[in-house]
Amino acid sequence: MAKRKKGDVVNGWVIIDKPLEVTSTQVVGRVRRVFNARKAGHGGTLDPLATGLLPIALGEATKTVPMIQDGRKGYRFAIRWGAETDTCDLEGTVTETSDVRPTRQEAEAKLKDFIGIIDQVPPIFSAIKVDGERAYDLARRGEEVELKSRKIEIFDFHIVDWPEEGSEDKDPEFEIICGSGTYVRSLARDYARILGTRGHVSLLRRTFVGVFGLDRAISLDNLEALGHGARAFEHLLPVKTALDDIPALAVTAEEIARIRRGQEVVAVGRAVSTRCEPQILTTGSMIELVLATAGQGEASDPVAMGRILGGRFKPFRVFNLGSE
């Protein structure tokens, strides 16, 4: 006899405003218990000392996690000048110090150096794997960790608050919009160095991930206070919410059956809807990511993600959903 899976079939996204000193994994577990969901994951790790937006995927929404993780992200953070730590934040041990304190004018002049595609070395206390082990595990054991530089992209970097001269109890605050793989802690470290000082992150808050913003978020405590009931489910967003930016191809009931068997369907002569003008597909059309939908517009349900190649839709990730 097959072993019965624990939990209920729950599909969708829950957007959490993560509190301090809670890991992303702990948030996933607590949200999963509220909904008694069989399957759950998150759309991008936040450090325990970071707060802000953490998208939690339940059920079939876990299939869309890569779409969220690869999207743009926004952060607000503060830098404390004068000391660099091994973790690049408040948690670590001081490794270098400096008496230099940059002025706002000096800081603004160097912002442009970090906008665009740049090289960044992740902090040694990170989840990156080195020879099969997490870098932070090696660092905690006192082993030497050497991480390679990687390309990241920063779309915007600006100052949002600069303390008055002599205000030692307040740190300057910044906002960035960045691509996948960016470490704010490394950015703060490198930015302080280029300003001729040392620094580390003293505050970090994520403001958005992909299509999800804090306007859709609920605190973890407030969600748990609602219990396992209708009020909690009011905060469950449809799976397709994470797929709003993907070109969509409406398919028929017969084609849905084929797609769910992993088969291709002909797409020549049909329209793929986008945020701009619809695109009429030809035998030469090639689109790397398309969402097949049952129906069109707001009422449509996601059927599968796939690609258009040679005038045919080729599914690579199929959703097992009824009407949402």
Tell me about this structure.
With 324 residues, this protein is an alpha+beta fold. It folds into three domains: 12-71 and 211-240, 2-Layer Sandwich (Pseudouridine synthase); 73-209, Pseudouridine synthase; 246-318, Roll (Archaeosine Trna-guanine Transglycosylase, Chain: A, domain 4), CATH 2.30.130. It has helices spanning 24-35, 65-69, 104-111, 135-140, 184-194, 220-226, 230-233, 253-260; strands spanning 12-18, 40-42, 51-58, 73-81, 83-85, 94-97, 116-120, 129-130, 133-134, 150-161, 173-178, 199-209, 212-213, 218-219, 248-251, 265-266, 271-272, 279-280, 286-294, 301-309, 312-318. Strands 1, 2, 3, 4, 7, 10, 11, 12, 13 and 14 form a ten-stranded mixed beta sheet that branches. Strands 15-19-20-21-16 form a five-stranded mixed beta sheet. It has a two-stranded antiparallel ribbon with strand order 5-6. Helix 1 packs parallel to helix 6. The protein is globular, with a radius of gyration of 23 Å.
Compact summary:
This protein has helices at 24-35, 65-69, 104-111, 135-140, 184-194, 220-226, 230-233, 253-260, and strands at residues 12-18, 40-42, 51-58, 73-81, 83-85, 94-97, 116-120, 129-130, 133-134, 150-161, 173-178, 199-209, 212-213, 218-219, 248-251, 265-266, 271-272, 279-280, 286-294, 301-309, 312-318. The protein has 324 residues and is of the alpha+beta class. Strands 1, 2, 3, 4, 7, 10, 11, 12, 13 and 14 form a ten-stranded mixed sheet that branches. The chain has a five-stranded mixed sheet with strand order 15-19-20-21-16.
